[in-house]
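anyone seen this seq b4? input:
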Amino acid sequence: MDAAPASPAKISPKEGPTPLFGAYGIVKRFGSFTANDGVDLEIRAGEIHALLGENGAGKSTLMKILYGLLEPTEGVVTHKGDIVQLPNPEAARRLGIGMVFQHFSLCENLTVAENIALVMPKELAGKALADRIAKLGNDYGLHLDPSRPVWSLSAGERQRIEIVRCLLQDPSLVILDEPTSVLTPGEAEMLFTVLERLREEGRALLYISHRLDEVRRLCVRATILRGGKVVGACNPREETARSLAAMMVGTAVRDVTPRQGVAPGKERLHLERLTLPAPGLHATSLRDVTLSVAGGEILGIAGIAGNGQAELFAALSGETRAPSPDAVRIDGKPVGGLRINARRRLGASFVPEERNGHAAAPLMSLSENALLSRYATAPLTQFGLLKLGSARDLAKRVIDAFDVRKAGPDPAAGTLSGGNLQKFVVGREILAEPGVLVINQPTWGVDAAAAAHIRQAVIDLAARGAAILVISQDLDELFEIAGSISVLHDGTLSPAIPTAETSREAVGLLMGGSSDHAAPVGDLPLVHETAPVPVPAHAH
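predicted toks r here
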């Protein structure tokens, strides 16, 4: 690490009163790549401060420096004006810094309570810790079962662990990295209530999100990064979501062009009364699930986290085999008993929800990750495998087509920011030109421009004749790209409703357990689009 210049014991604020925490002249280099370049940031008590930027702008690197996961190459961090050293997260927590991670830092085989205990004082364990978890859950509406193993939880429930684990440390600064990316509208509303309470208690919150309407609602100050540098600051409430996005990317964000008059083709993906028992104690059984997607169609699957989305994806991809071959068909062929590679050979592609570890091997390079999903389906070489050189070419095609920001020519997947890894994984599958694409949470954690690019790529793939099934907790996304929507609730799938004939409110009622699957728009009360969606008790 480059030697940092000598600094005074205190740093004067750029403006106004002394901030609770500050970062001044922060530079972070990884070899020849500069992730942060002279960044200044001041965070004050009693405010929710947004940190905005496109994927790869340097936001996560800066947050890791503030949380003690990385040391800056140059620059200093201050607490109440005093320069502090943050050699590790424990030192950051002692100063009152807590962080809610975008990528969950949880141990799969441990329970909720055991994961929380890892960062708590040793004397707080067992029943005492379970009581604290229950009290915080009751106080803030963040309910958890301390005895459940993490591997059995949905992404939304895992996010709840991160938030509870952070709040149990009674932090004075809470850093939130894409906290609503896997939450339903109802869960997000509950989180916003929690954040407002924390602000009123005098805590500082640093909020990173690509959902700009959330930023405009919660924050009165924003710092904007681009290319590792601070390029501006603003009051988000005085901006529009479009103007904020333009500041982040340096140009106007293009709208998604909807499909124009694409007639559906023949049926390409079909599930016939699929029933599967829950794969684990806390998983969800699928009951009598029937769906059909034709070429040129996009079917959206909405639902609150933990209602069977992971189980449905596993059944479609072949990670879980169906009880009969005919329960799942691809282009008319029964595939219920086939594994994922056999289904890929029939022209199907799959994008799972969890990109790190499920969609990509974090320690492997991008070209090796490209190889993993193609080796069994590419034209055979004399060794029976796709050549690594071809994989490098494929990885480069994905990187160029989906604007994947990275350090180095072929870095490990785990070194990419979350949004850039998402772009790589989605691009890898779309460029395979599949006849059937099943994609779970397509734009989780990506910026506005990248989300528009991914959604347009999905629409364009359908226009080329693919049958696409999109599982998403983002209702705005489903209404933008899907021709029809079904709702998965407690392992049961509602009949598909044409998007043009329903509303967010109608879909929200189905997500909450309403049995009126086909409620027409006119029969529903008018509700504001941001109204919370009811959360069933089992989702807690």
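The chain is about 30% helix and 20% strand. The longest strand covers residues 33-43. kinda curious what u guys think
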